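Researcher: We're teaching a course module on how sequence relates to structure. For the next exercise, students receive a sequence and then see the predicted structure as tokens, so they can try to spot secondary structure elements on their own. Here is the exercise chain.
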Amino acid sequence: MWDRFIRACRREPVDATPVWFMRQAGRYMQEYRAIRAKWGLLEICKAPELAAQVTLQPLVHGVDAAILFADILLPLEPMGAPFEFAAGEGPCMLSPVSDARGVEALRVFDVEEGLGFVLAALRILRRELEGKTPLIGFAGAPFTLASYLVEGGRSSGYTRIKRLMYDEPKVWCVLMNKLAEVVRRYLRAQVDAGAQVVQLFDSWVGALAPVDYQEFVLPHVRTILRDLETTGVPVIHFGTGTGALLELQQEAGGHVIGLDWRVRLDEAWARLGYDVAVQGNLDPVLLGAPRPMLDKRVRTILAQAAGRPGHVFNLGHGILPDTPPGNVRYVVDRVHELSQEQ
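Model: And here is the predicted structure for the students to work with:
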């Protein structure tokens, strides 16, 4: 059943639990490393044919969806905030935003003009995958994008962004409004270009207390997700470290709530209510564990899902670079086999 993933997102009956993995295209695959030996990450993202090729590589593992190969930071450059990837350090903003002047300089751009290469890759993929495998588009959420903008790169304490949030709430609101509008337009354009499901990644929002999420983030995320829900495509709302924020995330919107490995799937689903689908939530490190342990944990997650309509099997975050590719296929096969037995 080629559309079991879409059906699960809509909490419809499926023949087996669908499986896909965040960062399922990437460094753990020899085919991807061969491409990276010739081109940089941003070069691949900006070359639609290459991005499409990389997106298709992990389908050999039998996953139930393809997710566009791109980077969550891509919208920042056309906003006027260029960045680069430093060896061993990840993304680094060339001019971090630190004050009202920096926020004011950020622009809300036309998606076809600023990120047309992403839309071109989606159109290629939709033609290639039509009737075979669903296609997922995605974007970073406003708080996560703001984290990179203000911190200048990855952060452990998120002190700069929190200080901006607490000390300059009006500046913060302008920043989040701009980011929310960019992300809303970007995801809508992805749907128009062929994405059949979209996921909003709020990778770093778990750094916030619930009261801060509710006041400073939720209204902006709600603007994005409520608008996307009118497109008719399933919307996945994902964050890491969000065990204390789940109900607020649901309030913000999304047909599917992504769960990381720090919460039990059954307890999280009960908190959310069964009128929403859930996605998750194997610890990515377990993909490198001995197979008996890996099998045990896959069985545990499926048992917690209890065969209810609306479970999408995934990791609690992205595949790690040292993951054995054979274990990716193993998990896909085991999820399909075990869920058919339930």
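Model: If you want an answer key for the exercise: The chain has a mean pLDDT of 96. The first strand starts at residue 66 and ends at 67.
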